[in-house]
Amino acid sequence: MVDIIDPTSYPDWNDHIKELDGCSIFYSSNWAKILKESYGYRPLYFSFFENDKIVGLAPFFEVNSLLTGKRGVALPFTDFCDLIANEEETLNQLLEAFTDYGAKNKWKYYELRGGKAYMNQAVKPSSVLLEHTFTLNGSDDDLFASVKGITRRNINRAVRENVTNKISKSRDSLQEFYKLNCLTRKRHGLPPQPRKFFKNFYEHILAKDQGFLVKSYFRNEVIACGVFMHFGQKSIYKYSASNFAFKKLRANYSFLWEGIKELNRLGSTSVSFGRTEPSNKGLREFKTSWNPKEEEVFYYKYDFKERNFVEILDKVKGPHNLIFRNMPNPLLRLAGDLAYKHMA
C-alpha cells in the first residue's frame, strides 16, 4: 500500500529511511524542511510500506506557482533523487500512485531527477546530466595518491601560496559563503539563492550536524568556500563560491581536499560532486581531475496534457544572463529572493 507522507512532521522519518539502498541527505526530513520552509512547496512523499517498514519511496514536492504553473518535482533544487523500490511491483505501484495523484490534482507535469535504471529504454529522458562520485576507502594518503597528478599539484600549489582552510558550522561562516556566492552567481549571470534558504540551511543542516563548510583563506581574507552535506555513509559536495581575483591560488582544490578528508574522518564511504551539464567542459574537467566515477543521470518529464514523457531542448544562455551579470548587487539578491520559488 502506498501512503502519502510529509517527512517534516512524520515521527523519526530519518530513522525509517536510513537503511534504504541509495538513500542520501536529499531524502531526509532535513532537506524536506529546507524546501518547505524556504519556498512554501508541499511535500508529498509516496511511501510503500511492508510490515511497518518502508520498502519503496518516491519523494515529491508539489510546486504551485502563478507564474510557472502547478507540477510535481522530485525534488526541487536537488541534483538527483531516484525512486527507491525493493522490487518491480513496488516500483509499479509507486509510479501509478503519483501519476494518478498528478492527474487528479491537475499537475502540468511531473519531473523525475533520476530513473535510468528503472525506466523503459524506449522512454527518452528530458535531459541528461553527469554525476561524479569519489570513493572514500582508505587513509588520507591513499586518497591523495588516487587523484590525478594535476589535482595533487594544484593542492600543493595552494599550500605553497599559503592558502589555509578552516572547517566551520557557524551561522557567520554561512553568511561569509553567501557573500561569495552572490559574487559567483553574478559572474555566471544568475541570481543567488534566497537568503531565507541559507537561514533554513543553517537550522536544518549545519546546526543538526548534517553538514559543514570549508573556508579557504589568503592573508586573513576568505577567498573561497565549499559546502558539504552528509547522511549515513553518503555525502555530497553541494555548493561552492569564490573570489575570482584569487583563482590562480587554486583554493577550490584546497577546500575540496579538506572537505574530502573531513568526510573520510566522519565515516562517509563516498562523496558525490553533484550534477554537471555535459556542455560545461571546465567544471567537468575539474571534477574528473579527482579521478571519480562518472555516470549519466537521466531526468524525465511527464506531460499530463500529452500523456507522455517529453524531451526538453538544451538550455542556452539568453539576455537574462547579461541582465543579471550587470545588475547591482542589492537588486540581484532581491531577484533571487523573489524568483527562486517559481523556478523549482
TrEMBL record:
BioF2-like acetyltransferase domain ranges (all copies): 152-276
Keywords for the protein's UniProt record, in alphabetical order: Acyltransferase, Cell shape, Cell wall biogenesis/degradation, Peptidoglycan synthesis, Transferase
Keyword Acyltransferase: yes
InterPro entries assigned to the protein according to its UniProt record, in alphabetical order: Acyl_CoA_acyltransferase (IPR016181), BioF2-like_GNAT_dom (IPR038740), FEMABX (IPR003447), PG_Glycine_Bridge_Synth (IPR050644)
Superkingdom, natural source: Bacteria
PANTHER family noted in UniProt: LIPID II:GLYCINE GLYCYLTRANSFERASE (PTHR36174:SF1)
Family, per entry: Belongs to the FemABX family.
Protein name: Peptidoglycan bridge formation glycyltransferase FemA/FemB family protein
